[in-house]
Write a structure and sequence with these properties.
homodimer, 273 residues, D-amino Acid Aminotransferase, Chain A, domain 1, D-amino Acid Aminotransferase, Chain A, domain 2, 2 domains, 9-stranded mixed sheet, 6-stranded antiparallel sheet, 29% helix, 29% strand, globular
Chain lengths: 273, 273
C-alpha cells in the first residue's frame, strides 16, 4: 500500500513525520475524508471546498492546487489498485522550530478500506449518550478529538455507539457525525449552529422539497428526547437510526420510516454523483 | 543533539513518528516540560506527578517507571552535555490501526535550550488580550493548542504578548501560563477553576503566609481590569508583569512591586530546590 507525503509517493508503512511537527507538539492540523466507489470520487468538489476552507481558516497553506491534489489522489488509487476506498488528507502545522508557531504544513494522503454499516445496525438502530461540550472552532475539520476519544470508554461502558454534544440546552453534533431529528409533524431538522458542515448533511438537506421537509434550526436536548425519529449521518456511516438517547427510548424504539427513506434517497444521490 | 523515543536514544533530527499516531490523526496526547539548571532537575517530582496523572486520566500507560524515566532523562542530558535546558516529555495515543482508538503510546523526550525572560520585559511589562474559551479537560496537560495557536495572529495584530481565556465572566488561564492578580488590599489571587495546575503556580501559592497573602479563588474579568497588579506565570517565563489587558491599563501601567517581589521569592525557591 502506498501513501503520499508532501511531494512523493511512499510505502504506507514508511510514512513518518518528524516529532517536531505541530500536530505532535500541539495537536495543530486539519483533515478531510471522502469515499471512492467504483473509482468515482464521490462529491469530491464538496470535500475539497471544505479541506481548502479549513486550511485557510487555520492558516495552513496547501502546497498543491485542487487540480494537482486530485491528480495525486487518482495516481495513489491507481498505484494501490483498490477502487472502493476512503481517502484521508491530513494537513499538519509543519515542523515548528519553537514548537508553537505554524511552519510549512505537511500534507499526508492515505488510502483506507471502507466498511459501511451492515444490516443489523440498520435493522436495530443504536443507543447514544450525551455530553456537555462544544468543539474548538466547530465549523473547521481540525484534528482535535481529545474529548471524543476520551469519551470512548464511557460510550463503551454505557453500551452505546456514539456521544452527542450539547451546550446550554442546545445539541450540536457527534464527534464525527451530524445529527438529524424527525418531529411529530414529520419535518426533519438538523442543528444549525456550532457544527461541522458534513457533506452527507448537505446532501440530505438538498433532499428538502421533494418527498421531505428538511431544514437547519436550533435543536434542544428536549427536542431530541421527544422526537419521532433520530438519526446520525457521516461519510462512512451514511444514515444510522438512533433508538435510544441516554435512558430515553426514541419513538417506538425502532429505526424510523423517514430515516430509512432518507438513507435510500442518499444512496441514490451517491449513485448519481 | 540526542532525543529519546520509547526505548532508545537517537539523533534528534531522526526522531520520527509514523503518521498513524493518534497525535497526528486526532491530536491525542499529553506532555510536560521542566527545567534543568546547573544539572539540577527543578521540582521534577511535581512535574512527574502531573505527567503520570495526565497520562492516567487520558488512559495512556507510560512504559517507564518514574525511576526509569528519571534515569533516561539524566542519561539524555549527559549525552547532550548541556546542563541548563528544558526537557519536554510527550506521550501520544500511539499507532492506531483504525485512527480512533488509543494504542500503545509513544514516549518522546527532547531537550531544548532555555531562554528566560530578559530585563526589558520585566522592566516594562506586557500587554495581553482576552478571548472567550475554556480548554478541553483543562486540568490535564494535553497537546491540544488548536485555539491558542490559532489566536497567535490576533495577539500579534493587537501588539500583545499573550491571550487570557475567560468564560461566563470568570477568567481561567493563558494557553501556556497561569494568571495572578494583586488586589487593592494587596492579597494575591489565582483562578481556582478550569485551569492547569502549573508547578510555578503551586510554588507561588506556597509563598502564602510569609510576606504575602496568596490564595486560589474565582476571578472575574472585572477583577482583572481593576486589579492593582496582574502577572502571569510559567516554567519558562517564571513571573511576567502585565500592564495592559485589552484596552485597559492595569494599576499605573508599570510592573508592580508585589509581582517583582514574588519573582524574587520564586527564584530563591528554585535555587533552594
Amino acid at each position: 500500500m502506498y501513501s503520499f507525503l508532501n511531494n512523493e509517493f511512499l510505502s504506507a508503512e514508511k510514512t513518518f513525520i518528524h516529532a517536531s511537527d505541530l500536530a505532535t507538539q500541539r495537536g495543530y492540523g486539519i483533515f478531510d475524508f471522502f469515499k471512492i466507489m467504483n473509482g468515482r470520487l464521490l462529491f469530491v468538489e464538496d470535500y475539497f471546498d471544505r479541506f481548502y476552507r479549513s486550511a485557510e481558516i487555520m492558516r495552513l497553506p496547501i502546497s498543491l492546487s485542487r487540480e494537482e491534489l486530485k491528480k495525486v489522489i487518482l495516481e495513489l488509487v491507481q498505484k494501490n489498485g483498490v477502487s472502493d476506498c476512503g481517502i484521508k488528507m491530513i494537513l499538519t502545522g509543519g515542523y515548528s522550530p519553537g514548537g508553537y508557531e505554524i511552519a510549512s504544513p505537511n500534507l499526508i494522503i492515505t488510502q483506507h478500506s471502507l466498511t459501511m454499516p451492515g444490516t443489523p445496525v440498520l435493522d436495530k438502530g443504536i443507543k447514544i449518550i450525551t455530553h456537555e461540550y462544544v468543539r474548538d472552532i466547530p465549523h473547521v475539520k481540525t484534528i482535535n478529538y481529545i474529548t471524543g476519544i476520551w469519551l470512548q470508554k464511557r460510550i463503551k461502558d454505557e453500551h452505546a455507539a456514539d456521544v452527542l454534544y450539547h451546550l446550554n440546552g442546545l445539541v450540536s453534533e457527534f464527534p464525527r457525525c451530524n445529527l438529524f431529528i424527525v418531529k411529530e409533524d414529520r419535518t426533519v431538522i438538523t442543528p444549525a449552529k456550532r457544527v461541522l458542515h458534513g457533506i452527507t448533511r448537505k446532501n440530505i438537506l438538498n433532499l428538502n422539497g421533494k418527498d421531505f421537509s428538511i431544514r437547519e434550526d436550533d435543536v434542544s436536548l428536549q427536542d431530541v428526547f421527544k422526537a419521532k425519529e433520530v438519526f446520525l449521518t457521516s461519510t462512512t456511516k451514511r444514515v444510522i437510526p438512533i433508538v435510544q438517547v441516554d435512558d430515553t427510548m426514541i419513538g417506538i424504539g425502532k429505526p424510523g420510516e423517514i430515516s430509512l427513506r432518507i438513507l435510500e434517497a442518499l444512496i441514490e444521490t451517491e449513485n448519481k454523483n
